[in-house]
């Protein structure tokens, strides 16, 4: 009896939450855009095996537009938004059918979850997504997540599934975020153009990459939307939430077993030793800002180093039109975003009180209001680079 309890405890102890993202470049073959069925089958077999070992898995899968293009005989990715949405609607169903067929052979249940940026920017929807995903994982199901390209508009898009996967890893408090891509690891320059490019196996802090001379391209393959820049951004978001992040080759998904066993395959980004709290992560990365507040150097120091609220006295400019309780960016005079949060005043009120002391707000507006423009509890501070 004691041995049975110990075995169950050990299984729980080693069980981890792992978010795996695979890009279009790994799911398709070169310039043709046809599905790489061998890679797809290998991925499904690997994830099913990990699930049988007790791991909790979320798969963020690109490929809907690419599969839709193949289905419709298109030779390149559509640039027009309406056409791209229509093609995604065709491809998403086909992609999920392939996943369902392959996972079903191995007896592994899956679920489809389609998200837009708006789903994560509203707090109650954010929590509903967390509850749904948590229950799916509890039931032993592998959620397959993608951006809902069919309905997402440009201003409410994640832009790429690297960002989406990092947000989900942060949301779930995952142990690992593994980004499967078309290169085997991060290099100091693009290995496709520089044969002398030096590999980078381990990154302690994303901010250290600049000192290593890292130069990365901004575009991915012709069928995808991401590049190495978006993966580094995703690594910054995930590691700040305490999630170990790995960039590795998508055509070798079986390497996931070795990576989780401790082998240094690909490029590993170490998690921050003091992760940002869940609500602060939502404020920093979940919100979609609708305006900007430019602040002086004193406000920058107070927010970044002292963890203080933003006061009207520190604001030098207000950009955009928005109501109270909207999400805004807080930027320095040089234009660097230092924080993101929910304002207590609308944009017109802020223009009236910018630069004034808190006790003078009532006189300026003709009525009383909060002493803070953004209270520190509603202010998410960006990582200092």
Automatic annotation (TrEMBL):
The keyword Glycoprotein does not apply. Its EC number is 2.7.2.11. It is an enzyme of class 2 (transferase). Substrate binds at residues 62, 149, 161. It catalyses: L-glutamate + ATP = L-glutamyl 5-phosphate + ADP. It is found in: Cytoplasm. It comes from the Bacteria. PROSITE patterns: GLUTAMATE_5_KINASE, PUA. Pathway: Amino-acid biosynthesis; L-proline biosynthesis; L-glutamate 5-semialdehyde from L-glutamate: step 1/2. ATP binds at residues 21, 181-182, 225-231. Keywords: Amino-acid biosynthesis, ATP-binding, Cytoplasm, Kinase, Nucleotide-binding, Proline biosynthesis, Transferase. Transmembrane segments: none annotated. GO terms for biological process: L-proline biosynthetic process. GO terms for cellular component: cytosol. Its main location: cytoplasm. Catalyzes the transfer of a phosphate group to glutamate to form L-glutamate 5-phosphate. This is Glutamate 5-kinase. It comes from Gloeomargarita lithophora Alchichica-D10. The lineage of its organism: Bacteria, Bacillati, Cyanobacteriota, Cyanophyceae, Gloeomargaritales.
């Amino acid at each position: 009896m004691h041995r049975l309890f110990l075995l169950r405890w050990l299984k729980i102890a080693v069980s981890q939450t792992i978010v795996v993202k695979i890009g279009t470049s790994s799911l398709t073959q070169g310039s043709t855009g046809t599905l790489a069925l061998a890679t797809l089958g290998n991925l499904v077999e690997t994830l099913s095996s990990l699930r049988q070992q007790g791991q909790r898995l979320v798969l963020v899968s690109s490929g809907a537009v690419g599969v839709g293009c193949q289905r419709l005989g298109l030779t390149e990715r559509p640039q027009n938004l309406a056409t791209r949405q229509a093609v995604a609607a065709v491809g998403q169903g086909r992609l999920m059918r392939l996943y369902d067929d392959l996972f079903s052979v191995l007896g592994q249940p899956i679920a489809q979850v389609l998200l837009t940026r708006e789903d994560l920017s509203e707090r109650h929807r954010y929590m509903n997504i967390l509850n749904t995903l948590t229950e799916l994982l509890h039931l032993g199901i592998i959620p397959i997540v993608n951006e809902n390209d069919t309905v997402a508009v440009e201003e409410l898009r994640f832009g790429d599934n690297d960002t989406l996967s990092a947000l989900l890893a942060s949301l779930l408090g995952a142990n690992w975020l593994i980004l499967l891509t078309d290169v085997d690891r991060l290099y100091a320059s693009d290995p496709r153009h520089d044969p002398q490019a030096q590999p980078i196996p381990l990154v302690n802090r994303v901010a250290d990459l600049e000192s290593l001379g890292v130069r990365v391209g901004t575009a991915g393959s012709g069928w995808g939307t991401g590049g190495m820049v978006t993966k580094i951004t995703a690594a910054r978001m995930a590691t700040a939430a305490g999630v170990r992040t790995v960039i590795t080759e998508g055509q070798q998904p079986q390497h996931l077993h070795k990576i989780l066993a401790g082998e240094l395959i690909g490029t590993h980004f170490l998690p921050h030793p003091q992760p940002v709290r869940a609500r602060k992560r939502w404020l920093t990365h979940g919100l979609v800002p609708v305006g900007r507040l430019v602040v002086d150097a004193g406000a920058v120091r107070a927010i970044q180093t002292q963890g203080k609220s933003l006061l009207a006295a520190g604001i030098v400019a207000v950009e955009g039109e928005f109501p109270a309780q909207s999400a805004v960016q807080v930027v320095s005079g040089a234009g660097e975003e230092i924080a993101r949060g929910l304002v207590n005043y609308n944009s017109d009120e802020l223009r009236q009180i910018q630069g004034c002391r808190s006790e003078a707000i009532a006189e300026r507006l003709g009525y009383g209001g909060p002493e803070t423009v953004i209270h520190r509890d509603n202010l998410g501070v960006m990582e200092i680079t």
